[in-house]
Amino acid sequence: MHSYPKSHVKAALLATAFLAIVITALPAHQSESPSEAPVSLQLEVAGTANVVSVNELPVKQEQMEASNSRWINMTIQPGDNLARIFKRNKLPAADLQNIVNLGKPVSSLRKILPGQKLGFKITSSGELLAIQYKKNALDTLLIHRQDQSFVASWQSATPETIVAFESAKITKENPSLYHAGKAAGLSDNIIMQLSHIYQWDISFALDLRAGDSFSLMFEEIYVDGELVKEGSIIAAVFTNMGKRHEAVKYIDIEGHSDYYTPEGLSMRKAFLRDPVHFSYVSSSFNLRRLHPIHKKVMPHRGIDYAAKRGTPVLASGDGKVTTRRQNSASGKYIVIQHGEQYTTKYLHLSAFGKGIKPGKSVKQGQTIGYVGATGWATAPHLHYEFLVTGVHRNPKTVSLPKALPIARDELERFRDSVSPVLARLESISGKGYASLPPGDRSSGG
Ligand SMILES: [Zn+2]
């Protein structure tokens, strides 16, 4: 049985939600709990005069019955439950009881979610004939009247995965990864995936230039010819300031999926280049900077990332929180120790992340706080410092330790797996060396 990868959808939704947050820098909107939210129901009535919107559901309406019955289709709204929907549509409570009594096959109806589709087939005299509940793009519950009772069955559609290809360019009009991606028709989800793949190599806040370009191959999942969701990026190439960065997805022997260079080096590094996504650098590392408040030359031993107040600040690497404090200069700030050598500091936060306190271990990319303007700050920004054995280094240029490459004894399997993908990416992105085996171009690029 094919199972719909629900966690994947969730991850995609989360990614999209996260992207929305980092772009707009608005606090995450907590959807109200189903029992408390106000009820509003959007009805799409498919009568004889209307265009039949039941087409959205996989089961076709029987033409013969169209004259004396009709479908009422609706999108489930926040706060809806089946009892309310029955009541609102003046459907008999006895029918609801009979349906609920069907037990396990209809247990999903107890957990209906906003955005899902529900349809009722009703006779002209108001008798309920059938229900269709589209749980997700693949699974639909069908309930039909049989005499005084009902029978339930599930229908599953078969998804089809198609590999899509897209290219985009950084221009004056579209200077950010987000804008260039949007201009090329990419979704927030795919742009977010791309930014994650390259977050160790390219500082999207610092490094993008007009003329940079990227191409990528990614999965699209179709059901009945309709795009239902995007899968993951399979391969990508990002040309940044003349340098090509290729990345390809690989699932290793143990089933772990990750991104690698064509040579089998991990795209991951021990530190992210930017601890804030989709921000811009307002002040660089500069040991002879004129301080904006004190109006005298004071070293700027870090990078300032301008971003809206509330934008999540991420731990740039795995480590342990050593300090969570507030003072008049730094405002609310956090210090993280990464192993013996490395320390990172995050200043001027508006708030600390949940559970962030001294002694607490954090993961790379975890939200540790939120951008603010506490302490000596003229506008919301993150002041970020990177120290190697106690010495301030420029986070932009310091060489970062890498994650593990593909194991030597797995290299052949890796090459067999990724070569056709890379060859295809290169041929469609217009690069000439697609015919060379991967081993022959390790010195190129
Ligand atoms: Zn600063």
Give a summary of the structure in a few sentences.
This protein is α+β, with helices and mostly antiparallel strands. It is built from 6 helices and 23 strands.
CATH C-level label of the largest domain = Alpha Beta
Number of separate structural domains? 3
How many helices? The count is 6
CATH architectural type of the largest domain: Roll
> What general outline do the C-alpha atoms trace?
globular
Low-confidence region ranges: 1-66, 432-445
Reported by name, the CATH topology of the largest domain is: Nuclear Transport Factor 2, Chain: A
Order of helices and strands: HEEHHEEEEEHHEEEEEEEEEEEEEEEEH
| Radius of gyration, CA atoms, in whole angstroms | 27 Å
Q: Class by helix and strand content?
A: alpha+beta
Q: What is the count of β-strands? A: 23
Which ligands appear in the coordinates? zinc ion
Tell me the distance between the termini: 43 Å
Q: How much helicity do the residues have?
A: 10-25%
Percentage of β-strand residues: 35-45%
